[in-house]
């Protein structure tokens, strides 16, 4: 009780003081006869402080822009790199010059040779009907079309060609491009934008890589033609990633890879695509007119309905023996490209005679499906004959018309490998009059697959051509590669 | 330079705003109506669509040039389909009908008249087709190199005035595949603000830093150059490895000629080669610049030579380097041999090596035609861009509603013109682009004026194309659509007085 009393007194005193302070009349001052409230003084002081701070110069580290004289000196000193590196000693410059049509037999540098360097899979080079339709077109329309498709460059043969191809493949519509490689590198940026995810095979060729780069999407590569790697990549990208549900996702594969001759297993890809909800862009340049019972491509070969593949592109410079490319898919896919695909809108349209050549080529394929059987038997024969080539092994698929031979044992440096293969090709041409080529790479190409000798088999080759090639190749590679194995 | 009246700018902006609003409304309804359609993939993340409010191009079908000149073409006028969702396309020609009409072609790039079958070129082209077939099915470095290709490379180099040249099958690919081969990361590309899409793609694909300078303004270019050399690469300030300046000879949407600056220059002569200069050698000849000063000259064969493809002409070392690294040379199918032969024959005609002077006549004709046409249009009160001697003359339209109106009215009177809007040109500066050809004959036009000046003033029934006075048509349509932004005082003069003035 004794302790409580002083505490109570102290509390009461504090309370009294606080209430006094609250209830005290507001301080007032009278200046020059004007009443000023206390809070105004506080506000006035604050304003004065703010104004004072604002008028002070803020401290910035002094910026010393370069004087004119300094800029002149820098410009004089600046030495640009040369526009191109100097010519290397001993670099192979000359390419063989053809003096006749690139059919199964052709004239190279004055000599008649057997030609395994042209992707003339159906043997349509030199076909009379196609040449006649081209002549008709040339006489009617001239050579060029002199304008993009939007500016009076659309000619009726273009529409015929698009309808024919769509009809042949069983899709609603297709769109024509004026150059083979520009097809894929215009289609990809038209659909894939920044922020999308693309899963692509690491062995795709340069045009596809360029398209992927131009699209500015996130690109993830999976191991070449390895479905397990593809499945794990897709799983990694979509598992637990809520955001992945809302962005567009694509898988980009080629049907027959130019860099290795492998064939993509479309049935498994479609299963994966449906499981993880991706869209598929399929590049069919080398399989259109080759695979499938009637040449309709990879989808027919695997028995996959064509509607399941979202976008199909192909260059027509191979089986159809013409130039240009096409893209096909659903109606929306094709119509979108008519306004947004840069290679279609900003470039002149395909020369009309090439479009009519394409129409005749597809007609020929529909009327003569037996040409596919001869192509297939030629490929099988070549595989059989080349299976025991010393130093070289076949690394392409048994059905691929590109037969890819690579060195059994690499020397370790790509430059030496290329040198050896080029020597083989040169000697085969010189000694046995067979024209073969190696796969060449640009330094802008990021594909790391091994190089090799590429043989393009045609339905127009005869058995004797194939046996000439195989015996010559065996002999020359035995002699060139004898030091290396 | 373009002088845009304020009122026009405001009304144009308002029109575009209205179009955009309608496009959004349409998209909104489409989303509601489509909601019930089962499509789990598409509904969640639909494929990208182009802007629904932008008017698309107005494609029409070409049934082929009527021999012998190619200046006229038949157009299949098809049914106009209603604007299909989700695009608010202004007009779209779908399918074909049998209704054809012969029109005067002012839209195709046919500067020297090689587009149709030509008496010198076509027989040779057919011969080469029979010998080499339509395609080589092979890339140039493999089995696609024929005698014709080598011959054309030498001829193109000689024509342009450079030591060597390299050939490609497509003009667009020439730019977009060459620029990455010449310059990479650590380099700088300074390009004109109005360069073509292929150059923009090539510059982006190369990985170099890109800076833009004001269109055709060498003072600004110099300023940008000095600033960039002194500043160095962004953030690290290391000196640039290389700097390339890219300009075009004639700008396809402007019709102007460029003034060439110094530094590694890359000149894109897609539209000017073959059409400009006394002997058709392009902007260098016209402006008196030595080709050796320009490091790289690029051109296409689509326009003046009536074929397809492109070339690059430069020193022997650069061409050698390109032949070993350029992906378009190593991976792309080589140019079709008949197209190569067409270019060879066309160049021979232009140089006079075919034994006649048709080339010189064509060059003189196109210059005369363009200057005459441009001056007449300007006298009538149209706003025409472009320098003298340039065969490309844009007529400014501005308002989006006038674009299809102009084109359709002209088509109704059998003149085919091309109209362009955003995104090929700046948003407010839509235009109609006229391309003059050497095949357009002045005698026809004047004869037409004499014969039908009175008829045209009253009706628009023109039957025979030979009597068609082009600028009467354009003047009438210009009045209808209201694009004469700079009316001349004697606007009220009748056709008779105009005729007297011309003669």
TrEMBL record, chain A:
Pathway: Sphingolipid metabolism; Lipid metabolism; sphingolipid metabolism. It is found in: Endoplasmic reticulum membrane. Pfam families: Aminotran_1_2. Keywords: Acyltransferase, Endoplasmic reticulum, Lipid metabolism, Pyridoxal phosphate, Sphingolipid metabolism, Transferase. Signal peptide: none annotated. Its EC number is 2.3.1.50. Its main location: endoplasmic reticulum. It catalyses: L-serine + hexadecanoyl-CoA + H(+) = 3-oxosphinganine + CO2 + CoA. The keyword RNA-binding does not apply. Residues 112-469 form the Aminotransferase class I/classII large domain. The keyword Cytoplasm does not apply. Its cofactor is pyridoxal 5'-phosphate. One of its GO terms (molecular function) is serine C-palmitoyltransferase activity. GO terms for cellular component: endoplasmic reticulum membrane. GO terms for biological process: ceramide biosynthetic process; sphingosine biosynthetic process. InterPro entries: Aminotransferase_I/II_large, AON_synthase_class-II, PyrdxlP-dep_Trfase, PyrdxlP-dep_Trfase_major, PyrdxlP-dep_Trfase_small. It is a single-pass membrane protein. Belongs to the class-II pyridoxal-phosphate-dependent aminotransferase family. Serine palmitoyltransferase (SPT). The heterodimer formed with LCB2 constitutes the catalytic core. Heterodimer with LCB2. Component of the serine palmitoyltransferase (SPT) complex, composed of LCB1 and LCB2. This is serine C-palmitoyltransferase.
Automatic annotation (TrEMBL), chain B:
CDD domains: KBL_like (cd06454). This is serine C-palmitoyltransferase. It comes from the Eukaryota. It is a single-pass membrane protein. Pfam families: Aminotran_1_2. GO terms for cellular component: endoplasmic reticulum membrane; serine palmitoyltransferase complex. Residues 102-450 form the Aminotransferase class I/classII large domain. Belongs to the class-II pyridoxal-phosphate-dependent aminotransferase family. It catalyses: L-serine + hexadecanoyl-CoA + H(+) = 3-oxosphinganine + CO2 + CoA. Its cofactor is pyridoxal 5'-phosphate. Its EC number is 2.3.1.50. GO terms for biological process: ceramide biosynthetic process; sphingosine biosynthetic process. It is found in: Endoplasmic reticulum membrane. The chain crosses the membrane at residues 6-23. Pathway: Sphingolipid metabolism; Lipid metabolism; sphingolipid metabolism. Keywords: Endoplasmic reticulum, Lipid metabolism, Membrane, Pyridoxal phosphate, Sphingolipid metabolism, Transferase, Transmembrane, Transmembrane helix. One of its GO terms (molecular function) is pyridoxal phosphate binding. InterPro entries: Aminotrans_II_pyridoxalP_BS (IPR001917), Aminotransferase_I/II_large (IPR004839), AON_synthase_class-II (IPR050087), PyrdxlP-dep_Trfase (IPR015424), PyrdxlP-dep_Trfase_major (IPR015421), PyrdxlP-dep_Trfase_small (IPR015422).
